[in-house]
Design a protein that fits this description.
Length: about 475
């Protein structure tokens, strides 16, 4: 097997915004490009988008472009000296006063927090490095005791792990960014700060079918509605950064595994993100623990593994992608990889003919000696998604009439798409599919392939044929 099945997401930033760097990222193994709307202006995002599409045309392939919304950011205000040191055991106040902060208090201009928290709850500041326990609350003042002190500077973040805050996932800025990104033509919108199913419903009412929706699972409140949220979204991101701040660190590996398996069961693509090769921001090589972390996500069957600061602002962005590619390919060569994917496969609750067809592929792959790829004919991408859900251990060549579908499927495990308008004639289908498989080097003469399609061709949701053949 020479095809990278788990995809790589790279975040574009100052270190990689030029077309030369985007070209190098693609060559190194990137399939999905993330534009982070927490940073950069619209002209920068426009230039990035144009560069990615240009490189895709050069390479005669399709890449997913993901626009990541910032979401609500809860932050303290400013200090007189720019920063203070909070001492364990001392009192510290958060309030609505406009005066600059000091060692005893600072402004927190988020009235929703005051309404939601109660005595005894924990507040986390500066990515969880500082822990405060609430002693009392009024409409405009929270008195706390410092459980774990440390340095706190202007505009550091505030996390409230014990309660679902009455804050919408989409801010006014997000809605403006969303409009720009959708008009630009991005393939996926990533939603931050999702706490409940209604947050996804609201986003869907705006996005409609103009892009796929990815929900970041980063709030403990979202875990209480995980199944409903997965049902409502198109894909999921395990955002381990904030999740690791608001949940006990030792629980994050189990949470990651459970979220990945829940997404696989429902056939929804899932991305594992945050600090995967963090040391490569400054170092040309990762730590052994980071290599193991990436490999674990691949073993679990994640559709994508993501690089954030490593490629956005890091000193070794191309090397980070190359390393991630090496880890993925090495993991895929392990016999235990295929055994784990098979053992963790989930039976489908979908009783449709289309689902039965794709589910039967698993038995065919086991029965054949060396099947080399699956070929799907998919108008909407759903047939390719169903095939990917099975995690067959072989690549999926997705033939579609839609460039939009081809772009979106670049995020999905094992799928490579080709856009063609030649899906009309049934009698031409097998030979046509094999011709493309050879041209794209997905298969060669003598290889066995599995073809899945529907009659009549071009009809969405009609997958009802499966065909095994040898490339000649």
């Amino acid at each position: 097997m020479h095809t990278q099945l788990t995809k790589i997401v790279a975040t574009i930033g100052p270190a990689t915004s030029s077309i030369e760097r985007i070209r190098a990222l693609a060559k190194a193994g990137v399939s999905v490009f993330r534009m982070n709307f927490s940073h950069g202006d619209y002209q920068t995002h426009q230039n990035t988008y144009n560069a990615i599409r240009s490189v895709a045309k050069e390479n005669h392939t399709y890449y997913s472009i993901l626009a990541d919304m910032q979401g609500p950011k809860l932050r303290v205000s400013d200090f007189k000296e720019g920063k203070v040191t909070l001492k364990t055991g001392k009192s510290f106040t958060l309030d609505m006063k406009k005066e600059l902060g000091d060692e005893t208090r600072v402004g927190l201009f988020h009235p929703e927090i005051y309404k939601a928290v109660q005595k005894g709850m924990i507040l986390l500041l500066n990515d969880g490095l500082i822990r405060l326990k609430i002693k009392s609350v009024t409409d405009d003042c929270i008195e706390t005791s410092v459980l774990v002190g440390g340095e706190l500077s202007n505009h550091k973040g505030v996390n409230v792990p014990d309660v679902a805050l009455p804050i919408a996932a989409l801010t006014a800025k997000d809605k403006k960014d969303l409009d720009f990104a959708l008009n630009l033509g991005v393939d996926w919108i990533c939603l931050s700060f999702v706490q409940k199913p209604e947050d996804v419903v609201q986003a869907r009412s705006i996005i409609k079918n103009r892009a796929g929706i990815i929900v970041k699972i980063e709030k403990p409140a979202a875990l209480n509605h995980l199944d409903e949220i997965i049902d409502l979204t198109d894909a999921v991101m395990v955002a381990r950064g904030d999740l690791g701040v608001e949940c006990p660190l030792e629980t994050v590996p189990a949470l990651q595994r459970n979220i990945v398996l829940a997404c696989r069961e429902k056939g929804k693509p899932v991305i594992v993100a945050t600090q995967m090769l963090e040391s490569m921001i400054k170092s040309p090589s990762p730590t052994r623990a980071e290599v193991s972390d990436v490999s674990t996500a691949v073993y679990e069957g994640a559709d994508c593994v993501m690089l954030s600061a490593e490629t956005a602002v890091g000193e070794y962005p191309i090397e980070a992608v190359k390393m991630m590619h090496k880890i993925i390919m090495s993991t895929q060569k392990d016999d235990a990889y295929h055994a784990y994917l098979e053992a963790s496969a989930q039976p489908s609750n979908d009783k449709s003919i289309s689902s039965a067809i794709t589910s039967s592929m698993r038995q065919m792959v086991k029965s054949l000696k060396h099947p080399d790829c699956v070929i799907t004919f998919s108008v909407s991408g759903k047939t390719a998604l169903r095939a990917a859900k099975e995690r067959l251990g072989i690549p999926i060549l997705n033939l579609t009439v839609s460039e939009k579908v081809a772009n979106q499927m670049a995020l999905v495990w094992g799928v490579r798409s080709i856009v063609t308008d030649s899906l009309k004639e049934l009698i031409m289908a097998p030979s046509f599919a094999l011709k493309i498989a050879k041209e794209t080097k997905m298969a060669k003469v003598g290889d066995e392939v599995i073809i899945s399609a529907g009659i009549p061709f071009g009809t969405q949701g009609s997958t009802n044929v499966i065909h095994i053949t040898k490339v000649e």
